[in-house]
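Pilot study result, target chain (238 residues):
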Amino acid sequence: MSNNRPLQRMFVAVPPRYDLINGMFTLGMDKKWRDKATLKCLSSQPRTFLDICCGTGDLSVNVARMTSREVSILGIDYSQPMLEKAMGKSKKVSAGINFNLIQGDASALPLNDESIDCVGISFAFRNMTYKNPSSEKHLAEVYRVLRKGGRYVIVESSQPESRFIRMFFRLYVRTFVFWVGYLISGNKGAYKYLTGSVVDFYTPAQVKEMLINAGFSDVEYQPLFFGAAGIHVATKST
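Predicted structure:
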């Protein structure tokens, strides 16, 4: 996100307890949600998989662990501290899997056109698109590197449809998540942004419109935990 340096600096600063706080934020459900997203990624039997904004590598490692066929996996992130944590997790990956992690910019992917069968993103789509001046570039890059018929699988926080549930979800994020994140990480600014972006993030219908406008088709949505999170699957038109 080269045009959003404050956000980039934030994700360089938060990795030491990032996984712990994420688990507390989702009450431990993020692992199950990521497993569901992984199955969506693997259902199209990709031979090449890109984990964009891979962070500490959970989705990449999941794909490597859960696949039953040969697949080339690439994780890319701009935060070197995040990648270092991902490299530690990558030791769990089978030696037979082609698994690589590189530092890079999501708005200028170092990949050829139509070179990837499936792109996945785990709880980072919000940061790529919410009030981000590079949002259109990010979506255009994902579309560019996907082969025709390829899938873009997104697991992300969402907006519950129920007004009652949405009210309590926002209260939980603004109080518990913010203060626990701040106290554990010591980074108040990071968790002020993170909780604010969760509370005000787009609805599933708005995300679908964004993906359709970027050229994708057949956008599907699966709500998780009463709509507090969800999985979007967008297909590149053939």
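One observation from the pilot: The chain is about 45% helix and 20% strand. A full batch analysis is planned for the follow-on phase.
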